[in-house]
Amino acid sequence: MSNKRKRMDTLYRWMTYVASSIAVIVLSMIFIFVFKNGISLLNWDLIVNDYHAQFYNGGLPETVTFGTTVAPEDLDSNVYYSEKWGLALEDDLDREGNPMITVAFITADSPLHNINDKNNIDNEEFELNIGNVVTSIKFNDKPSALTVQGAENMIASLDASNDFREIVFSSLGGGIRGSLITTLYLIGITLALALPLGIFTAIYLNEFSKQNKITNLLRSMIEVLTGVPSIVFGLMGLAVFVPLTVRFTPADSANILSGSLTLAVILLPIIIRSTEESLKVVPDDFRNASLALGANNTQTTFKIVLPSALPGILTATLLAIGRIIGESAALIFAIGTAVKDDISIFGKSTSLAVHIWSLMTDEPANIELASTIALIILMIVLILNISVKLISKRFIRRFE
Amino acid sequence: MENIIFEIHNLDLYYGKFQALKNISLNIEKNKVTALIGPSGCGKSTFLRSLNRMNDLIDTCNIEGDVLYNSENVYNQKYDVINLRSKVGMVFQKPNPFPMSIYDNIAYGPRCQGVKDKKTLDTIVEKSLKSAALFDEVRNRLKESAMGLSGGQQQRLCIARAIAMEPEVILMDEPTSALDPIATLKIEELMNELKKEYTIVIVTHSMQQAARISDVTAFFLMGELIEVDETNKIFTQPKIKETEDYITGRFG
Amino acid sequence: MNALRSLKRSIRNYLRFNSVKEVIDFLVKSIFLLATLISSSFIIVIVVFISREGFIPFLTNNDGLGSVNLFSFLTGTIWLQGTAFASNLYSVGFIIVNTLYIAFLSLLVSMPIGVLTALFIAKIAPKRLAGFLRTVIEMLAAIPSIVYGLFGSGIVLVFVYNFAKIFGYQSKGGNSVLATVIVLSLMILPTITALSEVAIRSVRTDIEHGSLALGATKMQTNFKVVLTSAKSGIFTAAILGIGRALGEATAVSLVAGNARSGPTLNFLETTTTLTSTMLQGLKETIGIDYDIRFSVGLVLMVVILLTNAMLNFAKKKVGNVDVK
Which of B54, B36, B34 has its CA nearest to residue B44? Predict the structure, then answer.
C-alpha cells in the first residue's frame, strides 16, 4: 500500500473521529451548562414555593417587649443578630442573582412576632417568618435601612432604635410549584384523552379494518401529523380548542384543558404508531387459535392481542410524557405564557417548558432559574428514555 | 516449481471452536483453471476465501498454517493484504455491482489505487469490458446505473471489474449459481477465454461445470481435501472411494 | 326507488345479528372506527381552521384598516410598517427567504457531521463505543427544544458575540444568522445521524466485500461504496432534518434576534424566521395582529410542503440514475 493511500486513509478515519466527538462534546456542554447554572437554585423550596412573592407591610403595636435571648455562638459570618429584637438577618442572593436580606432565624421571645398588618387589620396569620425577605425597615427618626446597604446595617439600625414605623417584607417568590402542577395536570389529562383514542385507532387499523385504499388513506392522514411542526399544532389549539373550551367550560381564555387537547393531537401519531408496531408483532397464530375456540373478534382483541401489546403501549406512554414535558411551541399558543400559583383546569397557567420560555423572553432574562427548570426537565426526560430502553430490551424479543 | 502460484501448507481454519478446514495442503498452478468441488458445507468456499484473506472479515475466524503466494506467506503479520487483494481478484456467488454507473464500477479499483488520468481509465474500462465480453452490450450506456443490467450481465460486469485490476489470479465463488442456463453458458465461455491470461480458482456446485472448464479438480469433504488431480482423471478414474461416491452421485 | 330499497335491504342484512357476541362485536368495531375517524380528521381540522383564520387578513377589511395585499405580503421586505393593530402593511417575503436560507445552511453544517458520525458508529467504532455513541445521539434527540434554546442563548450567543468582536463587528448580543444556524444544526444532528446510521447499516455486506476484494482499503470502501449505496436513505434523513429545521420555533426565537426587515444574508446580523415571527409579541387574541399569525402559519405549511416535494423529487432523480 502506497504512503499516499495510507495518508488518505488516516485522514478519512480522523474525519469520522472528529465528527463523532462533536455529538459527545455538544451533549456534555449542554449538561454542564444546565447543571452549572441550575444546580445552585435547585432545592425543595424552589419546587414547593409560589412564583409570585406576597408582599407585607408590618407595623409595631403600642407596647413592645424586647427579647433577651443571647446570640448563639456558631453564627455564620454573613448572619447578623440583634438581641433586642430577637432577629437574625442574612445577606443572600435572590433567583435573579441580586442581593437580598433574608430572615435567618427569629427567637421565641422576639417582639416581631406581634406585628400587625398595616394593609389588613384583621389578618391573624400575620407574622415574620424564617426565609422571608426583608426589603426595608422605615424609621421615624432616621433614614430607612435598605437591602442595598446589607444585613449588617439593617441590624445596627434596628439595635439603635426602640421602634420603627414600618417593616416591608415578602415571601420568597420565584418557585415553580404552579408550573409543576400545571405540567402534571397536562400529563394526566392529555394521556386520558390521547391513550384511548390512539389505542382504539391502532386496534381498528391493525385488527378490524380491511387492507384497502380507504384504510391506507386514513393511515396516511394520521402519519402526516408527524411532519406538522408543533407551532402549527399550537395555532390549531388557539383556533379550535381555546374557543371550544371557552364556550363549554367556565374558562375565559387559554387554559389547561385547551393545552391538553392540543397535546393529545400532537401525541396521537406517536401512540398509534407505537401501539400498531407492537400489535404487528403478535403472531397471527394467537388470533387464529382464539377465533378457533369460538371467541369473537372483540374477545380475541381484548384478551389475546392487547395484553401482548402492553409493553408497546407503555413505551408510547413514557415517550408521550417526555414529549408533554418538553413541548413548548404549541403550548405557548394553546395554554399561554402566564406563570400562575393558583392552578385550575379552566384557568390560565403554564407548563415548566413554557415557564423557561417566559423567563428567557423577560427583560432581563433569568438564565439561572431557567437552567434549574431545564435541569429538572432534563432529569425527567432522561429517566423516561432509560426506562423505555429497558422496557423494549426486555419485551421486544418475546415473539422471536 | 516455477509455475506454482499458490502453495498451501497444513492449513487449519477455525470459526470459533468449529474447525472448518483440516490440514489442507495444495499447490495451485499458474494459468490453469482449478475447480474446487464437494457437498455444501465442505469448506471449499472457506478455502477459496482464505487465498485472498477475505476470511479476515469474520471476527471469530482463526487460521494456522501457511498460504504462500509467489513464495510469500500471506498470513505473515507484515504482509500487505490490500496489495494481495489487488493481485488476486474475486467474483462472488451473487453478482454484487456497486450502485454506480457501469463505468464507475470498472474504474473503481484503479481509482482506489490512485489512477486519476481520464484517458488511462477510459482505456482500462474498455479493455476490461471487452475481455469480459460485455463491451458490445453496454457501450452506449456506460454512464447508466449498473443496477439496470440483467443478472448475467451484472456477473460479467463483476468479472470485468476484477479484470480491471490486472490481477494474476481470479477467484470465483460459485459465480453461476444465481444465473439461468444461458447466462451460465456465457460465463463459462468467458472463463475459457480468460484462462489464457489468468489463473482461475473456481468453487462450483456443479460437477458438469467443473468437468467442462477446469484443468485440475480438488474434492473437499467435511473440511478435508480428499483428492486432487487433473480433471479428466478425477472424473474418469478417481483413486479414493469418497470421490467416486460423490461424482457418481451417491451423496451430496 | 329501487336503489333505495336495495340499500335498505343491505343495511338490514348488515345489521342482522345472530348472537349477542355479534352485537358486541359490531358495537366495539363501531367505537374503534369512530376513534379512527376522529384521529384521522385532525389533519383536516388543522388545515381548515388555520386557513380560515389565515385568510381573514386578505379577505376582510380588518375593522377598517383595509385588507392585506396578498402579493406584497408574499414579497415584501418589512414585517410591519406602522404600529400593530393600526396598519395592514404586513409582509413575509424576506422571512421566507430567511427561513429557507437558515434551514439549508443548517443542513449544510449538520449533514457532513451527521453522516460521518453515522459511518463511524455503523462501520468503524468498536461495539462498545458504538453503543455509547448511539446513546449520546438518543439523548441529544430527547432534549426538548426549549433546552436547546436556553443553551443557545447562554452559550452560543456569547460565543457568536465574541467571535464577531474579533472582526470588529458589534453584533446585537450575538443574536444572528450564525447563532440560529449553530443551534438548528445541533438540533437536527441526532435526526440525521440516527437515520443515516440505519441507512448505512442496511447496505448489503456483499457489496462491501466486492470492494475489499478489489484491493480497496476499509476506508475507501466505507467512503466510496457504503456511502454511495446508502445515498437514498441518507437523503431521507436530510429531508426529515430540514423539515425539523423549518418548523422549529422556540429555540430559534431565542437566538434569531427578530429582525423586522430583511432578508438577512450576513452571518452576524439579526434575522427572523416564520416560526419566530409567529411567537413575537402575541398580546391580543383578536384583530389583525392576531389573525396575521395564522397567515404566517399557513405560509410555513406551504413552504414545508414545497420543500419536501422538491427534495423528494430530487431524491428520485438521484436514487434512480445512480450516477455520481
Answer: B36
> What distance in Å separates residue C142's CA from the closest CA in chain A?
7
Query: Smallest CA–CA separation between A15 and chain B, in Å?
Result: 19
Chain B residue with CA closest to C219: the answer is B112
Contact between residue C206 and residue B96 where contact means Cβ atoms under 8 Å apart: yes
Question: Which residue carries 434549574 as its cell?
Answer: A372
Answer whether residue A303 shows pLDDT above 50.
yes
Tell me, what's the pLDDT at A65?
Answer: 78
The chain C residue lying nearest B49, using CA atoms, is C213
- Is any Cβ of chain C less than 8 angstroms from the Cβ of A94? no
Residue C291 Cα, gap to closest chain B Cα (Å): 51
Q: Which chains sit next to C, with 3 or more Cβ pairs under 8 A? A: A, B
pLDDT of residue A198: 94
Residues 257-316 in A contacting C (C-alpha not used; CB under 8 Å): 265, 268, 272, 296-299, 301
CA distance C166 to B73: 60
Length of chain A: 400
Q: Is the pLDDT of residue A381 over 80?
A: yes
Cβ of A204 within 8 Å of Cβ of C36? The answer is yes
Name the interface residues of B facing A (CB cutoff 8 Å). 80, 82-83, 112-114
| Grid-cell match 452559550, residue found | C155
B73: exposed, middle or buried (C-beta count within 10 Å: 0-12, 13-18, 19+)? middle
* CB atoms B99 and C324 under 8 Å: no
Cell numbers of C217, please? 482499503
Residue of C nearest to B83 (CA): C215
The radius of gyration of chain A's CA atoms, rounded to the nearest angstrom, is: 30
What pTM was computed for the model? 0.85
Q: Which residue of A has its CA nearest to B86?
A: A1
Q: Report the interhelical angle of A352-361 vs A367-395 (nearest 10°).
A: 150
Beta bridge partners of A136: A146, A168
**Is A1 in contact with B82 (Cβ distance < 8 A)?**
yes
Locus of grid cell 460485455 = B134
Is residue C267 predicted with pLDDT exceeding 80?
yes
Question: What percent of chain C has a predicted confidence (pLDDT) above 70?
Answer: 95
Give me the mean pLDDT over the A339-360 stretch.
87
- Among A132, A131, A134, smallest CA distance to A145 is for A134
Mark yes or no for CB contact B92/C213 under 8 Å: yes
* Closest C-alpha among C137, C142, C146 to residue C110: C137
Q: What is the pLDDT of residue C324?
A: 34
Dump the DSSP string for A162-188.
S--SEEEEE------HHHHHHHHHHHH
> What digits encode the pLDDT tens for the residues C66-91?
888 888 889 888 888 877 777 888 89
The verdict on a CB contact (< 8 Å) between A239 and C116 is no
- Please report all neighbours of A, defined by 3+ CB atom pairs within 8 A: B, C
How far apart (Å, rounded) are the C-alpha atoms in residues C269 and C176?
Answer: 5
Rounded to the nearest angstrom, the minimum Cα separation between C5 and chain A is 26
B86 touches chain C (CB under 8 A): yes
Distances (CA, A) of C273 to C12, C238, C299: 57, 20, 11
Give the angle C57-C62-C64 at the CA atoms, nearest 5°: 150
B230 φ, ψ to 5°?
Answer: -60, 145
Q: Judge whether A299 and A276 are in contact, CB under 8 Å.
A: no
Residue B252 has pLDDT above 60, yes or no: no
Cβ-Cβ contacts under 8 Å between A and C: the total is 246
- Inter-residue long-range contacts of A7-12, CB under 8 Å, 24+ positions, other chains counted: A8/C219, A8/C220, A9/C217, A9/C218, A9/C219, A9/C220, A12/C219, A12/C220, A12/C222, A12/C223
List pLDDT tens digits, range C104-149.
999 999 999 999 999 999 999 999 999 999 999 999 999 999 999 9
